[in-house]
Amino acid sequence: MNTVMNEYRNGILQAWRGEQWGRAFFEQLAEATNDPEHRAKWKVLAELEEETGNRLAPLLGDDAEPTSAEDFPPVDTAVAAYSRLAWPQALEQMMTILDPAIERFRALLAMAPDEDRETVQLLFDHEVALKRFAQRELAGNPETSLEPVRAVIRRARAP
Q1: What is the pLDDT of residue 5?
Q2: C-alpha–C-alpha distance, residues 102 and 131, integer Å
Q3: Helix axes 3-32, 75-83, angle to 10 degrees
Q4: In the prediction, which pLDDT does 138 show?
Q5: CA-based nearest residue to 125, from 148, 108, 95, 104
Q6: Dist CA 138 CA 132 (whole Å)
Q7: Which fold has domain 3-157?
Q8: Of the given ranges (48-62, 69-83, 105-119), which has the lowest mean pLDDT?
Q9: Is the pLDDT of residue 64 over 90?
Q10: Rounded to an integer, what distance in angstroms lies between the CA atom of residue 85 and that of residue 58?
């Protein structure tokens, strides 16, 4: 396997593992949240991570395996830190990891073979949707904040 394809496969595997971690993070954050509106939003973000991970799984072949503890910070530690933050601060903190992830996924999209392009585009778009969600929330538009996220979920579920 050439270097670019090896880098691509490793990137897809890391992205899939990140989706598994993200799903667990948002699910646990929803459980730790007292505000029912915020709990519902965290659950939708967990759904986005799950659906994106489900779409990535077929690209992995035999590489889909449980996330290693070394790959990501412990979910419970991250949840504890986020659950202590006020809603705007939690969203601002989330935004700090989105731009680097968007750039990683943009690079994966550039490397993607034609047969994977639609799925990798969805991976990229899901990260952009998370950013738009946070931006809308922070701009005081909670009534429309989940629209980009729900649009990507619908695409991920489409046959």
Answers
A1: 84
A2: 9
A3: 50
A4: 97
A5: 148
A6: 10
A7: Ferritin (1.20.1260)
A8: 69-83
A9: no
A10: 36
DSSP symbol at 7: H
Q: How many CA atoms lie within 13 A of 112 on its CB side?
A: 22
Q: At what angle do helices 87-111 and 3-32 cross, to 10 degrees?
A: 160
Question: What digits encode the pLDDT tens for the residues 108-153?
Answer: 999 999 999 999 999 999 999 999 999 999 999 999 999 999 999 9
Residues 146 and 126: their CA atoms lie apart, in Å, by: 12
Report pLDDT for 74: 86
Domain ranges of the chain: 3-157
The residues, any chain, with a CB within 8 Å of residue 45's CB and separated by 6 or more, are: 22, 26, 130, 133, 149
The CA distance from 83 to 85, in Å, is 5
Contacts of 112 (CB under 8 A, 6+ apart): 8, 119, 120
Q: Is the pLDDT of residue 71 over 60?
A: no
| Closest-CA residue to 8 (of 152, 143, 123) | 123
The residue count of the chain comes to: 159
Instruction: Provide the token pair at 1.
Output: 């396997």
Q: Residue 27 carries which side chain, given as an amino acid letter? A: E
